[in-house]
Amino acid sequence: MPSQSETSNSQTRPSTQDTTQYQHLIVEAGIRPGVGLIQLNRPKALNALNTPLMEELRAVLAQWDDDPTIRCVVLTGNERAFAAGADIREMADQSAISMYLRDQFRTWDAVRRFRKPLLACVRGYALGGGLELALLCDMIFAGESAKFGCPEIKLGIIPGAGATQWLPRLLGKQRAMELILTGEIVSAKEMAQWGILNRIAPDDTVLDLTLNVAETIAQQAPIAVLAAKEAIQHAYETFLTEGILVERKVFFLLFASEDQKEGMQAFLEKRKPQWQGS
Ligand code: DAK
Description:
Elements: E1 25-32, E2 35-40, H1 51-65, E3 72-76, E4 81-83, H2 88-91, H3 96-102, H4 105-113, E5 118-122, E6 125-127, H5 129-136, E7 139-143, E8 147-149, H6 163-171, H7 173-182, E9 186-187, H8 188-193, E10 199-201, H9 203-218, H10 222-237, H11 240-254, H12 258-268
Parallel strand pairs: 2-3, 3-5, 4-6, 5-7, 6-8, 7-10
Antiparallel strand pairs: 1-2, 8-9
Helix pairs in contact: 1-4, 3-11, 6-7
4-(N,N-dimethylamino)cinnamoyl-COA binds next to helix 2, helix 4, strand 6 and helix 5.
């Protein structure tokens, strides 16, 4: 149900882009009244989510959680990718113990704990951690070019930021199994049919659409908005924490396998992996 503001032609491009403060993000507070926009900005790596980017995201969200002028936030990428996953280059040589010690979950948990509504606007690839980041958002709007998937299995690992728990809840077990076990990429249209997207729109208008919805939310009673988000999150999360812990244990374990090394090395060398099953 489009709101009145969804049909407006409000200006959506940032009036000033804060590129000095953040290396991997373009951030615009007040792109619309009460709305903040965060654009993931590692275009050469299809916005692969490395630690510095995730740390910057955590910092912006922490700042905006405390900023009463920001009431709703939109997270987006570019035309080619929302994010093609966690950074394989950064993970390829990690061991189970180094992954455990780095505690990358700190930044992901910060996204999950953000108290204000967070809307994902996806164009191009949202794969692996990119899809998981979109799933941590409260709504997902997709351009027609959007492509979703969990290709981790092709790297010899499994999702590490919640997809094994979120997808069965959102799509049902069978579709979650299909996505995670085949690693295949599905279109925005298919994802919408599976009921996981709020809306699809042409790529050149989907950010406007998302910002319009964000603006509508930003106009509501601020405390009621926080309370509504908190209550809705509880509907999903009561039994989620244990599942997430199981996923993390198994995820770390895979970094003790030869197949993880082979899968990620093969990606970086642009060849097919040779699985050893060890
Ligand atoms: N990591 C690093 N670099 C990436 C990347 C990624 N995920 N995806 C793409 N790139 C880089 C490519 O290496 C390439 O760099 P150069 O070779 O030019 O230096 C550049 O982006 C452009 O990519 P392509 O040349 O491959 O572009 P194509 O159009 O041919 O293919 C593609 C697009 C998206 C199909 C392809 O790039 C691709 O398959 N990318 C990998 C997708 C993937 O496997 N994603 C899942 C990664 S594993 C965790 C939290 C989360 C996770 C894990 C732990 N914790 C908190 C601990 C999540 C894990 C994952 O997401």
